[in-house]
UniProtKB/TrEMBL annotation:
Species whose genome carries this gene: Psychroflexus salis
Name of protein: START-like domain-containing protein
SUPFAM superfamilies noted in UniProt: Bet v1-like
Residue ranges of every copy of the START-like domain listed in the record: 1-126
Cross-referenced Pfam families: START_2
Amino acid sequence: MSEKVKYEMEFPIQVSPSLLYQYISTPSGLSEWFADNVNSRGELFTFIWEGSEEQAKLVTKKSDEKIKLKWVEDEDAQAYFEMRIQVDEITKDVSLMITDFAYDDEIDEGKMLWKNMVSELKQILGSA
């Protein structure tokens, strides 16, 4: 089995970093745009989509900056996904930086999925 490949994406979002952080780091925020429902118990997040469940373990979390999770079922030890808030020091522009892993033939699909989800997030935040 080939290893997954890391890819990164950047999405400019016109919103305060602290508000954006609530949407990427809390079960209620993630339930608005990332999954149908999200529950967390300690470091374990349960994501629910149309009846199927996936669990991810919290790897790191830095207030108003980033959250990094690893899917429990993922056999690739290096794979994780991270949502990081980047603020340009000069312009103060805010971007959501996504880091994820996928097999070569699934990267385009993964990117499309992120684009769709972040588009929904932008609509919720009024930053479309």
